[in-house]
Amino acid sequence: MRFTNTLLVALRALRRNSMRSVLTALGIIIGVAAVITMVSIGNGAKAQVEAQVSALGQNLITVRPGSYSSGGMRSGFGFSPTLFPEDAEAIAADVKDIDGVSPEVRDHNQVLANGLNWRTNIMGVSPDYPYIKNWPVVQGAMFTEQEVKSLAKVAVLGKVVVEQLFPNEDPIGQTLRIRNLPFRIIGVLGQKGLTPWGEDQDDIVLVPYTSHMRRISRRTHLSSIQIQASDADLLDKVKISVEDLLTQRRRGREPDFTVRTQEELATAFTATSRTMTLLLACIASVSLLVGGIGIMNIMLVSVTERTREIGIRLAIGAHGSDVLTQFLIEAVLLSTLGGVMGVLLGVGASQLVAHNLGWPILVSPLSVIIAVTFSASVGVFFGFYPARKAAQLDPIDALRYE
C-alpha cells in the first residue's frame, strides 16, 4: 500500500508540471527514436545484403585460381591460369555430398542479333549452372550435357540482353553472333537483379563452357568452379574435401587455388553493415545520454522547489526511503514514457524513410526492448542522485526553507 501511495504522489507531481515533464522526456524520446531508426536502417541493409548473397546460389562453394600467398609471395588471386576442366571433373567424380558442379569461363564481349549490338558478359558454364545458382530458365530450356560435349553453338540469355537485342520479340530460335560465330538461342533466364557488389546479373549470355574455351576465348584454363553442397550443414566438410582433392592433384606443389563458401562470402559482406549499424546506434545513443542528463537536471530543480513539501512529509512520519522512492519513480516514469513514445516515433520515422526513399527497413523487436529498457535504466541512473539528495534532507532545515 505504501508503494501505491508513493506512486500516486509521484504521478500527481508530474501532472502538476505537465509541460516541464514533457520537455524533460523529449530528450529520451528523440534518443530512443534515433536509435530505433538507425538500427532499423542498418538491419534492413544487412538483410538486403544477406538476401542478395543467398540469391547467388544455395549452399554454394566457389573455387578460384590463385591463392593469397604462394612461395612467400602474394599471387594473383582469381586470375592465375591454374584451374582446368579436369579439376572440375575430378570434383564431380570424387567429392561426396554435392548436388552439382559447374566450371566457369568468363569473357566480356560484343554480341550482335536482330540488327542490334550489345556488350555483355559471356559465361561458359555447365548444365548444372542454373540449378546451382538457383536461377530458373523461364523460356525455352538450358543446354544439355551432350551439347557441352559436342561444343554446340547454343546460348541462354539474361533478361537485360533480351531487352537490348530483342525488344518486344521472342528470342527463342533466333541467332546471336559472338565473335562472328552464330549461336542459336535456346533459353531465357529469369530476372536475378544486382549482386552485393553492384553487378547486374541479368546482363549475361550463357554458353557451354567447352564452346567458350574452344570457339570464343580459345584458352585452356577456367575462371572458377562453382559447387553446390547437398546441405548447408555440409559446407565445411565439402570445402575440406575439395581442398584435399585439388591439393593431391597438384602433387606436392603449393596450393594455387582458393576455396570459399557462401557463408564466408555472406560474413564478409555483412561485416560492414554490422559495423555501420553499431556505429549509428552508438551515435544515436548520445541523445539518450543527453536526455538522461536533462532528467537529472530537472529532478534537482524539482528537489529544490519542493524542499518544504519534502520537509512536511518527513515531519509527519514519512521515511527517507519513501522520499527516495517517490523521486526515483518520477525519474523512471519520465524516462520510460519517453522511451515508449520514442519507440513509436522511431518506428514511424523508419516507415517514412522506407516509403519516401525506398530504403530497406527492418525493425527488430530486440532493438525495441533494448531501447525501452535502456531508457528506464537512464531514469534510474540519473534520477538516483536527486532522489538521494531529497531523502537526506533534514526535516527542520526543509521546513525553514523559503
Describe this structure in words.
With 402 residues, this protein is α+β, with helices and mostly antiparallel strands. A six-stranded mixed barrel has the order 2-3-8-5-7-6. It contains 13 helices and ten strands. It has two domains: 2-52 and 269-400, no CATH class; 83-255, no CATH class. Helices cover 56% and strands 17% of the residues. The protein has helices spanning 2-16, 18-55, 85-94, 129-132, 145-149, 159-165, 209-216, 235-249, 262-305, 307-315, 320-357, 365-391, 395-400, and strands spanning 60-65, 98-113, 116-125, 137-140, 154-157, 175-178, 181-189, 204-208, 224-229, 257-261. Strand 2 and strand 3 form a beta hairpin. Mean pLDDT is 81; it is low at 68-78. The relative contact order is 0.19.
Brief description of this entry?
Helices cover 56% and strands 17% of the residues. It is an alpha+beta fold.
